[in-house]
Amino acid sequence: MSSYPLMVNPRQAVRPIILASLLLALSAGSVSLAYGQQFTLSVSAFTPKIGVDPGGSATATIDLEPIGTFDGSVSLSCAVTSNQFTTNLPACTVSPALATPPADGPALTITTTGGTGASATSAGTYQVTVTGTGGTTTQTQTLYLSVADLTEDYTLSVSPTIAIPSPLPAGSAATTVVTVLPIGSYSGQVTLACLSVSPIVTAAPYCTFDPATVSISSSTGATSTLTIATFGRATSTRLWNLRMFYAFWLAVPGLALVGARGARSYRKNLLAVFCLVAIAGSLLLLSACPGPPGTTALNGQITPNNTYIFTLTGADANGAAPSNVPPNADVATVTLQVTTAHTAN
For 112-121, 200-209, 330-339, which range has the lowest pLDDT when averaged over its residues? Predict the structure, then answer.
């Protein structure tokens, strides 16, 4: 039985290869084009997180991020549904309704109807769906809002949760903003404080509030600036030396004047010397004046390098604390990182 070599026509072999390459290129181009028209949509949790009274409102923040080369606009909308009710649903709005990624700030607002009539929003859980459409891409995210007759109280929140600047050298101070929001129809005055700081160390950072007491009503919250100060090396050494130098040179001409008037009465000379000593002493005592807050070491101790976490609290006229205090998972905290201290001057 004879065998013959298999003959392959080169044209027949090349054509499938070219066709496959073209299809692969077109497929890759389509994937790349589709990839360049994508974006991500995310929505923060509602504030207040605990829910709202009938007649109350809640807000959230929508974040848009581009993927690939997407640079178009995204149309935003929202819808409220419920498995329990079909009427008197909360109303939702998105503002602005058109945004271009990256965008962190379009606000989602949910408003309920109060009262006890037929038009009031019923207590229950409502589903809120946020939709973003841009190019050929549509993204959605779902949140849940609780509507109920809430116990009158208030909550604390912090923004940013990392004090600015951070990290910072020991001897400096950082700030952030604390917001106090009413729950239900709560109103009153709340005095703010730092409940704890961890870790516990010598010369730990300390906090102050401006204002320390805020007034809130059933419809309006309030804010306060939180300042966290640290202990660092004293910065008054050079100033003390300069004051000594100036005091000394102020005394020299005075002493010369006393010598020149040696022929005059002893009483006048003694009075002149007393005046010179009083002036020099006053200048020297100026060095004992404290520097700005957060710059002088505490008994020689400097705030150690570390990451500190402050837990915040408050108390109203009745001593009531905010709803988000330990062991609540939504407790208000602030973080600050302290690094190497300033060198002494």
Answer: 112-121
Domain ranges of the chain: 40-114+122-147, 153-233+295-339, 237-288
Residue 263 has a pLDDT of 45
- CA 247, CA 284: separation in Å to the nearest integer? 7
The strand ranges marked E within 184-231 are 188-198, 206-210, 213-216, 222-229
Cα–Cα distance measured from residue 166 to residue 164, given in angstroms and rounded to the nearest whole number = 5
- How many other β-carbons are positioned within 10 Å of the β-carbon of residue 286? 13
Helices (H) and strands (E) in the chain, counts: 3, 17
Q: What residue type is 15 in one-letter code?
A: R
Two structure tokens written together for 52: 């709202």
What pLDDT is recorded for position 265? 54
| Homologous superfamily assigned to 40-114+122-147 | Immunoglobulins (2.60.40.10)
Between 202-216, 279-293, 320-334, the lowest mean confidence (pLDDT) is in 279-293
The predicted pLDDT at position 29 comes to: 45
Contact 285, 278 (CB under 8 A): no
Question: Which pLDDT value is given to residue 28?
Answer: 47
What's the chain's average pLDDT? Answer: 79
pLDDT at 112 (0 to 100): 92
Residue 8 dihedral angles phi and psi, to the nearest 5°: -120, 130
3-state helix, strand, coil in the chain (%, to 5): 20, 40, 40
With a cut of 60, say whether residue 282 has pLDDT above it: no
Q: Which CATH number fits domain 153-233+295-339: 2.60.40.10, 2.60.320.10, 3.40.50.620, 3.30.830.10?
A: 2.60.40.10
